[in-house]
Amino acid sequence: MLSDRLPPRIVAAVRDAARARILPRFRALAPGDVHAKSGPADLVTRADTEAEAEITAAIRDFWPEAEVLGEEAVAADHALRARMGEAEWAVVIDPVDGTWNFAKGLPLFGSMVAVLHHGVPVWGMLYDPVGDDWIEAGTDAPATFARPADRRPVATSDEGRTRRLNGYVPMGLFARETQLRLSRDLVDFARATSLRCACHEYRMLAQGSVEFLLSGPVPHPWDHAAGALCVARAGGVVRFLDGAPYDAQRRKGVLLAAASPALWDDLAARFAYLA
User: Fold this and answer.
1) Is the CB of residue 85 less than 8 Å from the CB of residue 67?
2) Among residues 26, 91, 143, 148, which one has the fewest Cβ atoms lying within 10 Å of its Cβ?
3) What is the distance between the alpha carbons of residues 211 and 236, in angstroms, rounded to a whole number?
4) Around Cβ 179, how many Cβ atoms within 10 Å?
């Protein structure tokens, strides 16, 4: 069982790193502060690496028994990826989710942290450094929208009519032939787009502003573990399209997050060809 003392300390570590390492770099990156990883749209900045290092050091200081693993550490050593699903306790960090937005000066980025127990999320945080607020959830607590001075519960949408559904689909992560089929299917909805930031997409779903989101075919834990738990604890459902529950050990498969069990079933049937 996760100790009650740990989440507030993780939250504090994330907020401290945002103030010291992320916000001072926003719209102030030098040319040498931004680098491409797997391609021109997959970026890493000095803010990513510095914030991840600071959060990692802080958590290891007060929770030395846990594996603390960040997106940039895994990018440097792919062998670390397995530990996210295998460790008894792991803390998975995405220091700047939406790095493309961040690097381009768009204030739509966040920090995502999840605590995993044998690969299953038991606590998650979706933090907005610009607003200094976050959505937080645990397996024994509902999802809440939190600020330093207050918090309130959040709940997913109850909309189920197809023509009124809004969602997020990362079109560019799919093969071209899949993109063509998706583009035809998505016209049935009110709107389907992408924020290029999983943190804010999951926040919008958990708060009832949209009704669904899809992952790409390779669902990295740093992009989805915290969001999956927050949406589930807000009343939604997050599963792989084959019906399997979220598990950080899984390397392939498209995740569908929906605002309700009934909507998940309907959308899973529509998007079954992605499974």
Assistant:
1) no
2) 148
3) 9
4) 14
Q: Can you point out the beta strands (E) in the chain?
A: 34-39, 42-45, 67-70, 89-97, 110-117, 120-128, 133-138, 141-147, 150-153, 166-168, 191-193, 212-214, 237-240, 255-258
Query: Which among 153, 171, 190 is the end of a domain?
Result: 153
Q: Pull the structure tokens for residue 218.
A: 């390779």
Which stretch of DSSP H or E encloses residue 269?
helix 261-270
Sign (positive or negative) of CA dihedral 70, 106, 127, 135:
negative
Let me know how long the chain is.
Answer: 275
Angle in degrees, 0-180, between the axes of helices 6-17 and 46-62, rounded to the nearest 10: 150
Claim to verify: residue 99 and residue 187 sit in the same structural domain? no
What gap in Å lies between CA 71 and CA 75, rounded to an integer?
Answer: 6
Average pLDDT of each block of 10 consecutive residues along the chain (275 residues)? 94 98 97 88 92 98 96 89 89 97 97 96 98 96 96 98 98 96 96 98 98 96 97 98 93 97 98 96
Residue in this structure with the two tokens 């990826």, named with its chain if needed: 81
Specify if 1 maps to a domain.
Answer: no
The parent domain of residue 175 ranges over: 162-274
Return the number of other C-beta atoms located less than 10 Å from residue 142's C-beta. 14
Nearest to 53 by CA among 83, 23, 95: 95
CA-atom Rg of the chain in angstroms: 18
What are the beta bridge partners of residue 133? 128
Residue entry with tokens 């939190």: 146
- Can you state the angle between helices 198-206 and 221-233, rounded to 10 degrees? 10
User: What is the distance between the alpha carbons of residues 108 and 14, in angstroms, rounded to a whole number?
Assistant: 17
